[in-house]
Amino acid sequence: MTMKRQGTRPRAALDRNEWIQAAIEVLAEQGVQGMRIEVLAKDFGVTKGSFYWHFKDRQDLFDAVLQTWRDGRIRDIEKQSVAIPGSEQAQLLHLIDVYGATRNRKGISIELAVREWARRDAQAAAVVAQVDTWRLECTRKLFVALGVSEDEAKSRSLLLYAYVFGQSLMACDSYDPRVNDFKRWIAKLIVRQQHEAPNGQT
Predict the structure, then answer these.
(1) Confidence at residue 48, expressed as pLDDT on a 0 to 100 scale
(2) Which residues carry the record's DNA-binding region feature (predicted)?
(3) Where are the domains of the chain?
């Protein structure tokens, strides 16, 4: 793929979103240090002029990557936390299953890379805080709809995400052949309504 020209103005063979998605792939594999213009251009088989047709500089790309990640995570949690009245508990169990799935290795890699970036960059840290706050608020509302107090709803939201992200990073399949049963039990314990016993028995 080579960059083409139209008159005296360069016409990029790639659109802005393609650059952003490629940068996110590199971020997941190599971290923020891997998001270099020359590397991305070489991978695409274009000149750096194509990049500068869409971005002012490398920081402009960084800003776009963070915004894309933030917007995507917020859209996703909004989608996963929509529940018709009376189905909040089932929706919370579904959410735990989705976010705790170790099969989503790509998503986990991107999440970890962004969080590592946030350790060293104030802008990335602010974006991560926005996403986490949004996630916690969405699940808090579901817990409140189950009839728990505000404080308990906030506590359970923290517990829910501490669990799903923590266990998703662990290689615990060999821990016990019943590990999937354990995970289901833990999920039910987190989201159970106040009148239910942890094992589902009254």
Answers:
(1) 85
(2) 36-55
(3) 83-202
